[in-house]
Design a protein that fits this description.
- 43% of the residues lie in helices and 18% in strands.
- By secondary structure, it is of the alpha+beta class.
- The strands form two sheets. The chain has a three-stranded antiparallel sheet, with helices on both faces.
- A hairpin with a 5-residue loop joins β4 and β5.
- The mean pLDDT is 84.
């Protein structure tokens, strides 16, 4: 994104969502060596996930560490839980989602029921590289096996 918006003026960056604008501004200071190091770390992550998927058919993760994250939460801003700052949404609460975004493994999110407070929760199913059809088939089986959530009356 930093390369795509490299020539953008500050006024143009102000039109972007705040989290994206911050990411672009931060990445403008990166060198080509920084980028190469990041690519090497990404390759190491890919290989580690592939190694895990040689031992298991799929990886199942929560989509978020807590079901009650506000819908408008800034992904890079601090998340407050029970009156305490609990880190940023992206780096600490939805880390499983970002991991597979980086590695490029086929993944999808599925509804998995409701929390004790009646908030929808989801899980992410991840498959080995190139196994999209198997992933979709497993997700369909999960959907058939899981009963639909029973919503409570708001009143």
């Amino acid at each position: 994104w930093a390369a795509r918006f490299a020539a953008a003026t500050e006024a143009q960056l102000d039109l972007l969502p705040p989290a994206l604008a911050r990411g672009v501004a931060e990445a403008r200071g990166w060198t080509s060596l920084d980028l190469q190091r990041a690519l090497l770390r990404r390759t190491a992550l890919f290989r580690a996930v592939q190694a895990e998927l040689r031992r298991a058919h799929f990886i199942l993760t929560p989509c978020c560490a807590d079901a009650d994250v506000p819908a408008g939460q800034d992904p890079l801003g601090p998340l407050v839980v029970d009156g305490r700052e609990a880190g940023s949404l992206r780096s600490e609460w939805t880390a499983p989602l970002a991991l597979f975004d980086l590695t490029g493994h086929p993944a999808l999110a599925m509804p998995a029921g409701l929390s004790a407070r009646g908030v929808p929760i989801g899980v992410q199913l991840v498959a080995p590289w190139g196994q999209e059809a198997r992933l979709l088939s497993a997700a369909a089986a999960f959907e058939r096996a899981l009963p639909p959530p029973r919503w409570r009356d708001a009143g």
